[in-house]
Amino acid sequence: MAELPLAAVERVIRRAGAERVSKSAAEELSKVLEEKALEIASEANTLTEHAGRKTVRDEDIRLAIRKD
Questions:
Q1: Which region, left, alpha or beta, applies to residue 13 given φ > 0 means left and ψ of -120 to 50 means alpha?
Q2: What are the start-end ranges of the E strands in 3-46?
Q3: Which of 16, 22, 25, 29 maximizes the CB count within 10 A of its CB?
Q4: Taking CA 64 as the corner, what is the angle to CA 43 and CA 4, rounded to the nearest 5 degrees?
C-alpha cells in the first residue's frame, strides 16, 4: 500500500512542468519515491545505530543520501 498521497505526487509532477498527469504516472512515481525513501531511511538508521543513538537525525539523512 502506498504511503505517499497521489495528489501530492501529482503536484510534484506538475511543479516539474507537466500540464496533465495520468493516475498511472503518479502511482509509478509514488512507488519509485517510496523505494528510494526506504533505501535512504534504512541507511540513515544504520548510521544512527553506528553513532550509538536511537533517534534518526537530519544529518543521518543527509549522510545517507551522500553515500548513495
A1: alpha
A2: none
A3: 29
A4: 75
Asked whether the beta carbons of 18 and 38 are under 8 A apart, the reply is no
Grid coordinates standing for 52? Answer: 550509538
Q: How confident is the model at residue 56 (pLDDT cuts 50, 70, 90)?
A: very high
Query: What is the mean pLDDT of the segment spanning 3-7?
Result: 94
- Indicate the DSSP class of residue 19: S
**Which of 5, 6, 2 is CA-nearest to residue 26?**
6
Q: What CA–CA distance (Å, rounded) separates 31 from 29?
A: 5
For residue 68, what pLDDT is reported?
A: 64
Q: Where are the domains positioned within the chain?
A: 34-67
CATH superfamily of 34-67: Histone, subunit A (1.10.20.10)
